Amino acid sequence: MADIDKILSVYCLLAPGSCFWVAVLEGKVVGTVAARMSVDQRYRKCGVGVVLGRKVLEFAAHYGYSSVILGTTAYAPAAHRLYQRLGFCCVGSLLEKIFYRVLHHHYRIDVQNISLKWTPTTVNAQVTKNEGNF
C-alpha cells in the first residue's frame, strides 16, 4: 500500500494543527487518513474506512469546522459508497483533464448538524492521532 509505505515522506509536511490518523488492527497498520484516506486492500469492507472517516468528522466538529468537503474520481465506487455511508452528499461533479479525462465528484457534510455519538461495531480497530511527532 503506497501511502502506508511512504508515511514519513508524504505526511511529514502537515501544517501546524493538522492531524494524521493511523488505523491499527491486530498490530498491523491497515489504514491512514490525513490529506487523503488509504485503507490496505486486504482490510477494505471491514469498517476501517468508516472508523477513519468518523475520526475526521469528530476532529472537525471538535475544532469548530462547519463542514468537511472531499472528492474522489468516478473510478472509485467504493469511496463513493463510504462517503455516502458517512453522511456526505454529492454536491457536484467536474470533468478534469490531467493526463486523461476523469470525472471528479465532490462531497460535503455539515459537521455541526450531525450526531457523533455513533460507535462502530463492524471493526475493532485502534485509531491513533499523530500531530507531527513521527
UniProtKB/TrEMBL annotation:
This protein's GO CC annotations: endoplasmic reticulum membrane; mitochondrial membrane
Keyword Secreted: no
Subcellular location: Cytoplasm; Endoplasmic reticulum membrane; Microsome membrane; Mitochondrion membrane
Domain N-acetyltransferase: 1-114
Official protein name in the record: N-acetylaspartate synthetase
Stored InterPro entries: Acyl_CoA_acyltransferase, GNAT_dom, NAT_camello-type
Pfam families per the UniProt record, alphabetical: Acetyltransf_1
Single GO molecular function: L-aspartate N-acetyltransferase activity
Organism (species): Maylandia zebra
